[in-house]
């Protein structure tokens, strides 16, 4: 780390810049300058598939020098300010490129979901030169052993749709770092896609499958569903094999069932915005305290109190923000404005938010 | 039709008033977007430019007055248009951590956490309710005739002057509720947790304004320190004057707790939304002025609109004011506004007059209101 970076990160710099952060000043001069924050400039956008309503694109990002790198399989939070609304939305995306060192470029492969405002923006509207907000990489859906010191362990990846990205990052890392057939470590890559036209990385997967590298690639398209029978045929001892599964909840559930209580299975799934039912149905869960009950339609604050919780509150009329809490999942309606919101991980004022259907709050 | 206790409005009128203000709130909130984001980011950028310019000019002693001026502008903008409004949650909808009420902590010795409790919650919920709103006289002044007179209040003008000079310290001490400790209503131990927060902010300001920046100017240390202290003083005086015009000019109404509880709720009598708006409206006063003046006051020159909609970005208050005035005319309610000098004179007069016991023969002078006051 350079002297300048050390100085900018020092407590003296923080004291001089307060109440703003040092980054707030640096950003005004050059958006790629940062001492703590991580941002990235979009370098390239490449379309992977063109299926209407489910386009996939790969974005190459140049992070700021604050990027600490990532282990293959990790994800990153991406924040974008959507044009028109000026609201910053933040979502998690797996990094699809091989493990990166500090400051190195990464790629994200994103499918534009019908409901996903961020994914739609990244696929359809992101252009080279645009800035995105990033977090540091996070997550344990990673390969713990390195390609440089291979063991004889077999590895299994089971993925569905855009769930292929973290597994792809791991396989790319293995191959980049010198993994080959001589390591005698067999990799089984089982992937499910809606159809050949929906297949992400089709060319690269074909190359990997053809090369002499002990990576077996099995692509299943269309109606094919995961079956324990098929997995047993490919990997007889699958329950004792390190396995990574990432994909839609239907696939994850089937795989979990097949693995039973095996501790070799690692699961990754992301939250999607839920759809509102428009009535006071469903259950309200307060995740930190573990309390839950049927939704009564009252404000979340009142429902929490009815369960014996004592969340912080102030005005109880939506003006003072004392009761702001994080809704992790579900839809809420603002009692004052009637506005509904289904975004995951959103800060809401629980005194004026009533759940619409299932809802989870970090209380 | 029945007139609700203490108001000039009927029950139906109060409820309709509440609905009208709710409609304005909904419409403005639905309209928030890029212009509001660009505005606050633009203000932050300007403030940072004044800050950098001010700090830099201390290296050239002949520019000392300019340096102090630039730094004062920076501190005023930061405390009023940025700090106060961001910490009200006005920009939380943007999802930008740099402008979030839960994260931002202003350049002031009063910790944001404590200010948000005493200001956003206590003052904005119980505005001008005697015995509930501790901003009436801040526990040290007599600002309402219904506060019982005591020989202590002979010092009213002196206390007000001291509060003006040390305003940020007054704001920080405000949460310690010293008057309640003296009265035996609050225990000293309750303040222990608050002390740490205040000391953290005091150290931060002392380190920045009275040690690091002066030290960075080397031999000019004393001059820079004096300049920084002056900028803090100027900010204190300005903030005090703007804020005292918000609730203390003649004609601003205060309320008793009983008269606010106008409807029957599930847990006993409570205040209706309409009456809450009504109280905010009559309990606040505006200051007229130029666009620049409104920005430098953090738009607290639109105290009425701020109290009706404390969580709506302050730049919207001027446009909302047009509708609020129209509503006031229809309901025959006073809309208290005047120039800075008019309002300040009115406040100063009240501070001096209330230093003495109430005179039964001389009623309070007529409210300063542009619309005719309801009989």
UniProtKB/TrEMBL annotation, chain A:
Gene Ontology MF: a single term: metal ion binding
Cofactor(s) for this UniProt protein: FAD
Gene3D superfamilies: 3.10.20.30, Nucleotide-binding domain of ferredoxin-NADP reductase (FNR) module, Translation factors
InterPro entries cross-referenced by the UniProt entry: 2Fe-2S_ferredoxin-like_sf (IPR036010), 2Fe-2S_ferredoxin-type (IPR001041), Beta-grasp_dom_sf (IPR012675), Cbr1-like_FAD-bd_dom (IPR008333), FAD-bd_FR_type (IPR017927), FNR_nucleotide-bd (IPR039261), MRET (IPR050415), OxRdtase_FAD/NAD-bd (IPR001433)
Superkingdom of source: Bacteria
Entry protein name: Oxidoreductase
Pfam families the record matches: FAD_binding_6, Fer2, NAD_binding_1
Automatic annotation (TrEMBL), chain B:
Biological processes annotated in GO: lipid metabolic process
Record domain Fatty acid desaturase: where: 64-337
Pfam families for the chain: FA_desaturase
UniProt GO MF annotations: oxidoreductase activity, acting on paired donors, with oxidation of a pair of donors resulting in the reduction of molecular oxygen to two molecules of water
Domain of life: Bacteria
Alphabetical list of InterPro entries matching this protein: FA_desaturase_dom, Fatty_acid_desaturase
Record GO cellular component, one term: membrane
PANTHER family according to UniProt: ACYL-COA DELTA-9-DESATURASE, DESB, FATTY ACID DESATURASE 2
Protein's recorded name: Acyl-CoA desaturase
The species this protein was found in: Nocardioides currus
């Amino acid at each position: 780390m350079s002297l300048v970076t050390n100085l900018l990160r020092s407590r003296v710099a923080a004291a001089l810049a307060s109440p703003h952060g040092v980054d707030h000043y640096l950003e005004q001069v050059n958006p790629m300058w940062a001492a703590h924050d991580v941002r990235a400039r979009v370098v390239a956008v490449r379309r992977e598939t063109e299926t209407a309503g489910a386009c996939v694109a790969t974005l190459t990002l140049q992070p700021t020098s604050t990027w600490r790198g990532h282990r293959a399989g990790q994800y990153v939070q991406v924040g974008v300010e959507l044009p028109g609304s000026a609201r910053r939305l933040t979502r998690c995306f797996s990094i699809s490129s091989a493990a990166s060192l500090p400051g190195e470029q990464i790629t994200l492969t994103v499918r534009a979901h019908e409901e996903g405002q961020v994914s739609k923006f990244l696929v359809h509207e992101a252009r080279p030169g645009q800035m995105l907000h990033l977090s540091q990489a996070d997550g344990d859906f990673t390969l713990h052993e390195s390609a440089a010191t291979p063991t004889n362990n077999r590895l299994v990846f089971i993925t569905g749709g855009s769930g292929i990205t973290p597994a792809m990052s791991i396989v790319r890392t293995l191959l980049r770092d010198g993994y080959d057939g001589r390591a005698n470590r067999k990799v089984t890559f089982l992937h499910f896609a809606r159809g050949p036209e929906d297949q992400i990385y089709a060319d690269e997967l074909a190359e990997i499958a053809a090369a002499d590298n002990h990576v077996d690639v099995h692509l299943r398209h269309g109606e094919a569903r995961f079956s324990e029978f098929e997995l047993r045929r490919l990997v007889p001892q699958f329950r004792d094999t390190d396995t990574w599964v990432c994909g839609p909840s239907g696939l994850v559930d089937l795989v979990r069932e097949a693995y039973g209580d095996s501790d070799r299975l690692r699961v990754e799934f992301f939250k999607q915005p839920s759809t509102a039912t428009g009535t006071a149905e469903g259950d309200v869960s307060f995740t930190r305290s573990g309390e839950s009950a049927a939704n009564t339609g009252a404000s979340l604050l009142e429902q929490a109190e009815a369960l014996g919780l004592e969340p912080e509150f102030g005005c109880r009329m939506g003006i003072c923000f004392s009761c702001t809490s994080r809704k992790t999942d579900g839809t809420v309606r603002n009692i004052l404005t009637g506005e509904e919101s289904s975004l995951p991980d959103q800060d809401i004022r629980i005194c004026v938010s009533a759940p619409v259907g299932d809802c989870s709050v970090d209380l | 039709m029945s007139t609700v206790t203490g108001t000039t409005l009927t029950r139906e009128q109060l409820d309709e008033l509440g609905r009208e203000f709710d409609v304005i709130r909904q419409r403005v909130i639905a309209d928030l977007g890029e212009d509001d984001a660009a505005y606050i980011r633009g203000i932050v950028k300007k403030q940072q430019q004044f800050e950098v310019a001010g700090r830099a000019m201390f290296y050239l002693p002949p520019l000392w007055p300019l340096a102090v001026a630039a730094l004062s502008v920076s501190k005023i903008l930061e405390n009023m248009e940025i700090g106060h409004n961001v910490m009200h949650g006005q920009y939380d909808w943007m999802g930008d951590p740099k402008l979030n009420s839960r994260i931002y902590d202003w350049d002031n010795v009063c910790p944001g956490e404590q200010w948000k409790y005493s200001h956003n919650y206590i003052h904005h919920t119980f505005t001008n309710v005697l015995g509930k709103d501790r901003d009436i006289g801040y526990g040290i002044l007599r600002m309402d005739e219904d506060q019982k007179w005591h020989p202590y209040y002979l010092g009213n003008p002196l206390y007000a002057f001291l509060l003006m000079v040390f305003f940020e310290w007054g704001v920080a001490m405000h949460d310690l509720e010293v008057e309640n400790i003296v009265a035996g209503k609050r225990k000293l131990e309750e303040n222990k947790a608050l002390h740490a927060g205040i000391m953290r902010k005091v150290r931060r300001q002392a380190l920045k304004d009275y040690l690091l920046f002066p030290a960075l100017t080397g031999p000019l240390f004393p001059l820079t320190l004096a300049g920084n202290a002056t900028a803090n003083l100027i900010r204190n005086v300005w903030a005090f004057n703007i804020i005292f015009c918000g609730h203390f000019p003649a004609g601003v109404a205060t309320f008793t707790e009983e008269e606010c509880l106008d409807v029957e709720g599930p847990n006993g009598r409570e205040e209706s939304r309409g009456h809450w708006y009504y109280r905010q409206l009559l309990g606040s006063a505006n200051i007229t002025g130029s666009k620049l003046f409104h920005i430098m006051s953090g738009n607290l020159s639109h105290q009425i609109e701020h109290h009706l909609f404390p969580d709506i970005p302050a730049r919207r208050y001027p446009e909302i004011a047009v509708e609020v005035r129209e509503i006031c005319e229809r309901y025959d309610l006073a809309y208290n506004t005047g120039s800075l000098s008019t309002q300040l004179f009115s406040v100063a007069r009240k501070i001096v007059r209330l230093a003495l016991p109430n005179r039964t023969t001389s009623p309070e002078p007529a409210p300063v209101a542009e619309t005719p006051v309801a009989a």
